[in-house]
Amino acid sequence: xxxxxxxxxxxxxxxxxxxxxxxxxxxxxxxxxxxxxxxxxxxxxxxxxxxxxxxxxxxxxxxxxxxxxxxxxxxxxxxxxxxxxxxxxxxxxxxxxxxxxxxxxxxxxxxxxxxxxxxxxxxxxxxxxxxxxxxxxxxxxxxxxxxxxxxxxxxxxxxxxxxxxxxxxxxxxxxxxxxxxxxxxxxxxxxx
Length: 192
Prior knowledge:
By secondary structure, the chain is mostly helical.
């Protein structure tokens, strides 16, 4: 799991960047480079284009930090910039696809969060994640790996909080089913 970023520290770095502090920008870049890149790759599925978008995001942060008003956390603001830039690429390529329905009825007999947490086989987890829709993968990524709250994720994606909750719930159910089929539910860690 990715290291949890300190929200107050990121807010402070953005405030310093707003005053032209290049050292703060370097620190912010080091803290958010990996999670931001992973987030963009999930949306675009193109590492080269994602790297370009990531650099565009940081350039926008540098240019717009003074305009950041703090209506959300700075981290949420930065991920929202990344989301918008990735969506622009999809719109240009006419590749935007929204999927809010489940492909089939899900058996709710086992706790999905426990199954995800207990997965010892990282290959099975990766394979199961790749089988999810982009919207479901992003919901899990931001919830469990970036440790964002539902309101923060809603702010990043520009969707209602209820939609985020629904996506996370369904993604966990789909992960449970996939991991159970692959026999990868034997660990002890819990994310629930």
